[in-house]
Each structure stands twice: as C-alpha cells, then as structure tokens.
C-alpha cells in the first residue's frame, strides 16, 4: 500500500512539475515581450557602437577558435541588437534598420547555441548585416572590410584593425584574406 | 511481484491519464497567400519534396499519423513543430523581407547539405521524407538559383 502511495505521489509530482515547466515557459515569453516595449531611450549612435563592439568581440572569439566565448558574445550581441533604437532615423531608414536588426538578431541567437561550423556560417550573413547597418548609422571609428576568397565562395567581415585575422578559419588559416575596403 | 504489479498499474493509469492532457494540433484548412509554393515558381518534383520532407514541421499544417496523436509522442512532436515553425514557416514565406528570405534560403541549403534536415528522428519513421544524394543536389541547386534571383 505504501508503495502504491509513493508511486502515485511520484507520478503526481512529475505531472505537476511538467505543467509548471510549461507555465514558466509561457511567463518567459510574456517577459521578453515586455522588455521589448520599454527599452528604447538612449542615443542610437552609442547603441550602434555597442552593437559593433559586440560584433568585434564575437569575431575575435571566432579568430581564436573559441566556440564557448563566441556563443557568449553571440548572446551579448543579440541583446545589444534588441536594444537598438531607430527612432531618430527617417521612416525609410527605420524600415531598413528593423529588417537588418531582425536578421542579425536571429544570426546572433543561433551563434549563441551552435557549434563552431554553424557559428561561422551565421557570422557570414551577420557580417553583411553589420555592413548594411553602419552604412545607415555611421560609426566614429575607422573600420576595415576584409575578405577571404576561400570560405563559402568568398566571404567578408568587418574589423577595427587593418591586420587580417581570419574569423572563418581561425588558426587554420589565420592570415588568409585581404582588406577590401576602408570605412571612414 | 506485488510491487511490479502495482508499478505496472500506476504506469498504465498515468499513461491513460496523460492522454487527457491537452496538446495543440498544428492544423489549418487554408493555405495563406504568402505560401512559398504560391509566390515562387516551384517545379512539381521540388514542390512534392518540400511538402513531404519539410512542411510537417515548417508550415501551419502537419499530417499526423495515428501514433503522433498518442502521448507522450504528441508532446515531443508539438515541441518540434513549435521550434520548426519559429525557425521557418513556409506558409508565411512572402511576409519576409528579401534580406530575411536570402538568410533563410542560405540556412536551408546548409541544413540540407550537412544532412541536419530533415531530422533523423523524422526520416526514421517517414522513410519518404529522406533525400537521396541526387535529390539533395537537385534541391540545393534549385534553392541556390532562387536565392540568387532575390
């Protein structure tokens, strides 16, 4: 009898924790929606610089073949992207920016939960998004668009240094690539 | 022996019990005008391949075999579909911007190329959902073309 009670209790506990977990997930989702509406207040230039800064940290982690660090930087970048404020831009720019941010956020979020191979795939599209972003927002620093002809039919990335350090191959081909364009 | 019997009964009761817990069915009668097939000129064989191999988890309409209506299988499936649709919903294709479309197509190609999609757990049961090497190449080539045309 005691055993039966214990078993029933265990089953109930399991059921309760299951529904609980589902509830929690719902709450989490509501929460993220809330954050979304109340976060826009600071100057957008600093926000764009913050995004770039996170992007460079992510790039450095990929250069260093550090998956874990890249994942962390991916999460940070996703957060900075979500905090971007486009309100001071023209309607047309806002539309374009929203599109870039949405795309980039998805890539950053994937980088946060992927292996190195995937991280680099997403980094390629993310880099394009970053170029398009600063084409609108501008940046106070000099940037270098660099290019590796070998990765995935040719791939670009941005760097704050003119020294080539390849984020697509890391230590395997650290200096493969060239500066394609200087920005600012 | 008695304990085994009791445990068996409890498990049975639990199994029957969880059948009454609600799951959301991913089913819809209408295909929205934003559907991938409606806005793109998709050759018939590619269309069929996408329908069979992708649409169960990447659209608003899943073809449910009987065992997918039984718990706890239905829960696992519900989770997969939720995740799948969040990543990519073919029914809502045309609501994406060109940038997002290109991004998605690139990801689709990578997923198929690396055999990550369709999921192994899915092709295990849905034999017709898996791609032969030739089908893979054909599909990838076609998607590449679509991507370059955007």
How would you describe the overall organization of this protein?
- The complex is a heterodimer of chains A (184) and B (150).
- Chain A is globular.
- In chain A, a hairpin with a 6-residue loop joins strand 1 and strand 2.
- In chain A, helix 2 runs antiparallel to helix 3, helix 3 runs antiparallel to helix 4 and helix 4 packs antiparallel against helix 5.
- Chain A is 63% helix and 9% strand.
- Chain A has 184 residues and is mostly helical.
- Chain A has a three-stranded antiparallel β-sheet.
- Chain B is mostly helical and 150 residues long.
- Chain B is 55% helix and 0% strand.
- In chain B, helix 5 packs antiparallel against helix 7.
- The interface between A and B is medium-sized, with 17 and 17 residues.
Spatial shape of chain A: globular
Q: List unreliable stretches of 5+ residues of chain A.
A: 26-44
Radius of gyration of chain A: 21 Å
Q: What's the count of strands of chain B?
A: 0
- Quote the beta fraction of chain A: 5-15%
Beta-strand content bin of chain B: under 5%
Give me the side-by-side strand order of the main sheet of chain A.
Answer: 2-1-3
Order of helices and strands of chain B: HHHHHHH
Could you tell me how far the N terminus lies from the C terminus of chain B, measured between alpha carbons in angstroms?
Answer: 68 Å
Count of alpha and pi helical runs of chain B: 7
> Which chains have the largest interface?
A-B, 17 and 17 residues
Round the Cα radius of gyration of chain B to an integer and report it. Answer: 19 Å
- Could you give the order of the helices and strands of chain A? HHHHHEEE
Please describe the biggest sheet of chain A, giving its number of strands, its sense, and whether it closes into a barrel.
Answer: 3 strands, antiparallel
| Helical percentage of chain B | 55-70%
Overall residue-averaged pLDDT value of chain A: 83
Query: What is the global morphology of chain B?
Result: elongated
**Helix coverage percent of chain A:** 55-70%
Given as residue ranges, the uncertain stretches of chain B (5+ residues, pLDDT < 50) are none
Signal peptide (chain A): 1-21
Keywords (chain A): Signal
Pfam family, one (chain A): DUF3347
Domain DUF3347 (chain A): 51-141
